[in-house]
Automatic annotation (TrEMBL):
NCBIfam families: tyr_de_CO2_Arch. GO terms for molecular function: tyrosine decarboxylase activity. The gene is mfnA. InterPro entries: GrpII_AminoAcid_Decarb (IPR050477), MfnA (IPR020931), PyrdxlP-dep_de-COase (IPR002129), PyrdxlP-dep_Trfase (IPR015424), PyrdxlP-dep_Trfase_major (IPR015421), PyrdxlP-dep_Trfase_small (IPR015422). Keywords: Decarboxylase, Lyase, Pyridoxal phosphate. It comes from Roseateles rivi. Belongs to the group II decarboxylase family. Sphingosine-1-phosphate lyase subfamily. The keyword Lyase applies. The lineage of its organism: Bacteria, Pseudomonadati, Pseudomonadota, Betaproteobacteria, Burkholderiales. This is Tyrosine decarboxylase MfnA.
Length: 381
């Protein structure tokens, strides 16, 4: 630590110097997150000092959190659902499997079945909880189907995880089939909608042929939603929604002190800024605002796809959400060359023949044109 503190001007300079090394959004093609909506940023700045770990002091902030869980429950068609606000998709997925395990004490060596593209946060969760993750093969559109799950069910199966928008491809598992199977087998179906939860309800309203990713599917027991992705809130904003209001007893942890609240999630002391930001953007945009945002994201996704095709590139698969995978040999070497020109792009370590392009709010037509220009210069098809 410094012996003497810096002045405010020196601190600002130090911060600006380091922030200047971050990449501008105008070159970011890999991120499911984006610049938060101005409404979210403003609300967060007003509430950064709050602590949802002490709702006697921050009673108003606690109400904001409650209102967020109500709105998210309604969005997910769960009038009796219970919501827990958490730091993001990783924590929500961990808690979901924790809940599934608490509800089945009869299963001692629990197994979780998911598709091959299940997010690595569920691998972390299984490791932490001592569960075995069994991955099932996907169909030709990289979606998990019920038949592949059925073949892996054993007496130790604790849960099925369906992904509503895989991180790598934006592929949406056959959630309707998985729901029917979970009901029939009496298994917990967790839907990881971290990527697609703030796309699918609005895309369906626009007429896109996607399955619902919500509690209208009767076999769905829990859902991960991530307001800090397409929800346009600030990081860290995640949510776990449970179909019923009743929580397993083992999830509850009393604190040391009388009249302080019982904890249900992992974190204790935590800022209320995420809840305030999420409430602001949910209420500021409303369903219509998210539909408009989703329409714009699909329009720019179509613009990108059209541009790629016009330049002679082929897609790895038709995009269901706002993630486009371009089939290219040596995609990783190309991504590196593009990075030297400032572009941040992902290539899956497993599917190495595709450049993955995420169309978020910050990806506009000028950015797409500039990218296509550089792509064509480096790797003409
Ligand atoms: N489940 C799915 C389907 C996800 O896509 C993600 C994150 C998670 C769970 C975990 O969520 P948290 O990261 O909120 O805990 N998927 C992104 C990814 O792995 C995360 C990300 C976001 C990475 C922005 C980079 C980035 O710039 O691609």
């Amino acid at each position: 630590m410094r012996e003497r503190g810096l002045s405010a001007a020196q601190l600002a300079q130090q911060q600006a110097q380091l922030l200047g090394q971050d990449r501008p959004w105008s070159r970011v093609f890999n991120s499911i997150c984006t610049q938060p909506h101005p409404l979210a940023l403003e609300a967060a700045m007003q509430t950064l000092h709050t602590n949802l770990g002490d709702v006697r002091i921050f009673a108003g902030t606690a109400q904001m959190a409650q209102q967020v869980t109500q709105r998210l429950g309604a969005l997910m068609q769960g009038p009796h659902s219970r919501g827990l606000l958490v730091s993001g998709g990783t924590e929500a997925n961990l808690l979901a499997l924790h809940v599934a395990r608490l509800r089945r004490p009869d299963i001692t060596q629990g197994e979780v079945i998911a598709g091959e593209t299940v997010h690595f946060s569920l691998r972390k969760a299984c490791t932490l909880l001592g569960l075995r993750l069994r991955t099932a093969a996907l169909d030709e559109r990289l979606r998990l189907r019920a038949a592949a799950v059925q073949a892996l069910i054993t007496p130790q199966t604790l849960a099925i995880v369906g992904t509503a928008g895989s991180s790598e491809f934006g592929a949406v598992d056959a959630l309707d089939e998985l729901s029917a199977l979970a009901l029939q087998q009496g298994l917990h179906l967790h839907v990881d909608a971290a990527t697609g939860g703030f796309i699918i309800p609005f895309a369906r309203a626009l007429g896109h042929a996607l399955p619902p990713c919500d509690f209208s599917l009767e076999g769905v027991s829990s859902i991960t939603l991530d307001p800090h992705k397409y929800g346009l809130s600030i990081i860290p904003s995640g949510a776990l929604l449970l179909r019923d209001d009743s929580l397993p007893a083992g999830l509850q942890q009393d604190s040391f002190f009388a009249r302080t609240p019982t904890h249900h999630s992992l974190l204790g002391t935590r800022s209320g800024a995420a809840a305030a930001a999420t409430l602001a953007v949910l209420d500021g945009l409303g369903f219509e605002g998210y539909v408009a945002q989703t329409r714009a994201n699909y329009a720019r996704t179509a613009y990108l796809v059209q541009g790629l095709r016009a330049h002679g590139y082929a897609l790895m698969l038709a995009p269901e959400l706002n993630i486009v995978c371009v089939a290219l040999p040596q995609a990783e070497a190309l991504a590196q060359a593009l990075e030297q020109r400032g572009w941040i792009i992902s290539v899956s370590t497993r599917y190495q023949h595709a450049l993955r392009l995420v169309v978020q709010r910050h990806v506009d037509e000028a950015m797409i044109d500039a990218f296509l220009h550089d792509l064509h210069a480096l790797a003409p098809p």
